[in-house]
Design goal:
Helices cover about 80% and strands about 0% of the residues. By secondary structure, it is mostly helical. It has one domain. Helix 1 runs antiparallel to helix 10 and helix 5 packs across helix 8. The longest helix is centred in the middle third of the chain and has 32 residues.
Length: about 290
């Protein structure tokens, strides 16, 4: 059950880009999609943040705790999400997922630069494999799309991955005391409180005059691409632990290619498949832990 939850969580997290592109095709903008996605999930995560029994209770959190949680989660859920969804307008779902999958390598590099954790053993070849894979996948991308648009979209998503890596380093220190589930729920709820009013202001006419497809795909993303994978991730973490969960989650980026081809017509060529193979191999080498 632990491995099943891990695989399903990874797949659902990975295909949220498919849902986003479907909403774009129905007339939505990234701001509208994010507003609806986090707006639909806001009551769920607010309830989890209040009811969770782990870590520090909401009533016991100090003002400094709230400031730290808001600052860290804004990097992982607000900045990273906005840049990711903006980048998705310019590149394929497969390339977007591959770039985001690089965030563990970014964490390693940032930790080496700012936290004085040296690069050791398998880390350097893992980084090399991961970025060779990215170059291969991007090479295949620019053969079928506009070069400038692809570079801009890939740059936005890569900065999103860097932002998420900063979030991961901050969460490593905060979540044990706050509680992993409460920490995540607070971050998601705060994101909803920001993205929902933003979407209302930017649309001018509010969020009640959009096409049916925008509401449907945003709701699907909220349920299948947000709430369900977050819950399954928690189940898998308790059952498997971080190391085995990381390895089981590697199915996520790979499954995106056939699903993007099936639902969006984004067929993957040999460059994309080769790039994915290199990057997943690098990720496995980086995340593999001794028992």
């Amino acid at each position: 059950m632990g491995y099943a939850a891990a695989v399903l969580s990874a797949v659902l997290f990975s295909i949220k880009g498919v849902f986003a592109k479907k909403a774009y095709a129905a007339g939505a903008t990234p701001e509208i999609v994010l507003g609806l996605r986090f707006g639909f999930t806001l009551p769920v995560f607010a309830w989890i943040a209040w009811k969770s029994r782990e870590g520090t209770r909401l009533s016991e959190m100090r003002a400094l705790d709230w400031i730290r949680v808001a600052a860290v989660t804004s990097m992982g859920y607000v900045v990273a999400s906005l840049l990711d969804f903006k980048g998705l307008q310019h590149i394929s779902v497969g390339l977007e997922r591959l770039i985001l999958y690089l965030h563990p390598t970014v964490v390693v590099v940032l930790a080496a630069l700012f936290l004085h954790r040296p690069l050791r053993g398998r880390m350097i070849p893992a980084l090399f494999l991961s970025y060779v894979g990215l170059v291969l996948c991007f090479t295949g991308e620019i053969h079928v799309t506009d070069v400038h648009s692809s570079v801009w979209g890939a740059s936005l998503v890569f900065v999103s991955a860097v932002s998420y890596a900063v979030f991961m380093l901050g969460a490593e220190r905060l979540s044990p005391r706050i509680g992993a589930h409460r920490f995540t729920a607070i971050g998601m709820a705060l994101s909803g409180m920001l993205f929902l009013p933003q979407a209302l202001l930017l649309t001018g006419t509010g969020l009640f005059h959009l096409s049916e497809g925008v509401y449907v795909w945003s709701l699907v993303m909220a349920i299948l691409g947000t709430v369900a994978p977050v819950y399954l991730f928690g189940v898998a973490m308790k059952s498997l632990g971080a190391a085995r969960l990381s390895i089981a989650s590697m199915v996520g980026p790979v499954v995106v290619l056939p699903l993007a081809a099936l639902f969006l017509g984004e067929a993957a060529g040999p460059f994309q498949w080769g790039g994915f193979a290199f990057t997943v191999a690098g990720g496995m080498l980086l995340m593999w832990r001794r028992k």
